[in-house]
Automatic annotation (TrEMBL):
<keyword id="KW-0949">S-adenosyl-L-methionine</keyword>
<keyword id="KW-0808">Transferase</keyword>
<dbReference type="InterPro" id="IPR001214">
    <property type="entry name" value="SET_dom"/>
</dbReference>
<protein>
    <recommendedName>
        <fullName>Histone-lysine N-methyltransferase SUVR3</fullName>
    </recommendedName>
</protein>
<keyword id="KW-0489">Methyltransferase</keyword>
<feature type="domain" description="Post-SET">
    <location>
        <begin position="299"/>
        <end position="315"/>
    </location>
</feature>
<dbReference type="Pfam" id="PF00856">
    <property type="entry name" value="SET"/>
</dbReference>
<keyword id="KW-0158">Chromosome</keyword>
<dbReference type="GO" id="GO:0003690">
    <property type="term" value="F:double-stranded DNA binding"/>
</dbReference>
<dbReference type="InterPro" id="IPR003616">
    <property type="entry name" value="Post-SET_dom"/>
</dbReference>
<keyword id="KW-0539">Nucleus</keyword>
<dbReference type="GO" id="GO:0032259">
    <property type="term" value="P:methylation"/>
</dbReference>
<dbReference type="GO" id="GO:0005634">
    <property type="term" value="C:nucleus"/>
</dbReference>
<dbReference type="InterPro" id="IPR006560">
    <property type="entry name" value="AWS_dom"/>
</dbReference>
<dbReference type="InterPro" id="IPR051357">
    <property type="entry name" value="H3K9_HMTase_SUVAR3-9"/>
</dbReference>
<dbReference type="InterPro" id="IPR046341">
    <property type="entry name" value="SET_dom_sf"/>
</dbReference>
<feature type="domain" description="SET">
    <location>
        <begin position="160"/>
        <end position="292"/>
    </location>
</feature>
Length: 319
């Protein structure tokens, strides 16, 4: 094979490699080292691999980690879909421009007839908060409107400037790269939907890995409550292996600056967990929320949220 053709093949193949494989290959010769460097710099420039509207760069002024490695999905995915994402290229020059975003709710593609919601002029029950709960409903696959409908606020992906900043003690964290006004949709918490049984097994494994330091998991358990206070729906969303920018949101004991809202899309089986700004957020501010009830565990991970009401230990989910 001619040298030029070989180089083209390598440029296509190397973005499929994980950081360890990339490092091994890059140590073999100058050319591979050069390709590897360009892949590393492309990866550090956009965690979202072009799946979001704006690039989400990694910023690290404290150690040598250029980026965090995981597979990207802009929305939650079911277990059968995650097998399609076992491998995902990251870091080539024209990646993903032709790939459909994995997991994203597909809008109605037929002739738009108006879905029935207020913004489209008819009378379905989409849109707005359901009174007395942190649940919101939007148009969805069951409606006749497209992605531009005003009642699809959370379905168009991330539309505010974000960056992922490294902290010596907390690891990576999601920060605002622009002013974000109170009430603005920030992002969804995307990842693999697990059964409770699977979530328990994963959490056990993550706890073991975390106790050795250097490992961060992103398994979130969400419960939807009835007005009586009883939980009626439990969702286990794991962004550790396959996730989106929300997997970098750290905990704050004071509740942080993000509000979590369950969004139900008309015609969709399951709700999605979405983050909205709970107050005005300044550029560079870290985005945080409360991971849940603080149940002090002897072996709990230390909390470095820095808030005046910090408990000193991260909340743990009793899966
Ligand atoms: C969902 S991940 C957040 C992103 C993570 N910092 C990273 O580097 O990938 C959750 C993990 O982040 C770390 N973390 C989150 N909030 C923290 C806090 N307030 N103090 C210390 N570590 C925190 C813990 O390791 C936790 O298990």
């Amino acid at each position: 094979m001619e040298e030029h053709a070989l180089l083209e093949c390598l440029e296509l193949a190397m973005p499929w490699l994980n950081p360890a494989e990339l490092a091994t290959l890059s140590s073999t010769c100058k050319t591979l080292n050069h390709i590897s460097k360009s892949i590393t710099s492309a990866r550090a420039s956009d965690a979202s691999r072009s799946f979001e509207n704006l690039p989400v760069p990694f910023v690290n002024a404290c150690d040598a980690h250029p980026y965090a490695y995981f597979h990207y999905t802009p929305s939650q995915i079911l277990p059968f879909q995650s097998s399609l994402l076992r491998c995902q290229p990251w870091g080539s020059n024209n990646q993903n421009s032709t790939l459909p975003p994995p997991g994203r709710i597909l809008p109605y593609t037929g002739e738009e007839s108006g879905c029935g919601c207020e913004s489209c002029g008819c009378e379905c029950l989409c849109g707005g908060f359901v009174e007395g709960s942190e649940v919101m409903s939007e148009c969805g696959p069951g409606c006749g409107c497209g992605l531009n409908c005003e009642n699809r606020v959370t379905q168009r992906g991330v539309s505010v400037g974000l960056k992922i900043v490294r902290d010596e003690r907390k690891g990576w964290g999601l920060h605002a790269a622009q002013f974000i006004p109170k009430g603005q949709f920030v992002c969804e918490y995307a990842g693999e939907l697990l059964t409770t049984e699977q979530a328990r097994r994963q959490q056990q494994m993550y706890d073991e890995l975390s106790s050795g330091g250097r490992f961060s998991s992103a398994l979130l358990v969400v419960r939807e409550h009835l007005p009586s206070g009883k939980a009626c729906l439990r969702m286990n969303i794991d962004g550790t292996r396959i996730g989106n920018v929300a997997r970098f949101i750290n905990h704050s004991c004071d509740g942080g600056n993000l509000l979590t809202v369950l969004v139900r899309s008309s015609g969709a089986l399951l709700p999605r967990l979405c983050f909205f700004a709970s107050k005005n957020i300044q550029e560079d501010e870290e985005l945080t929320f409360s991971y849940g009830d603080i149940r002090i565990r002897e072996k709990g991970l230390p909390c470095f949220c820095g808030s005046s009401c910090c408990f000193g230990v991260l909340p743990s989910e009793n899966t």
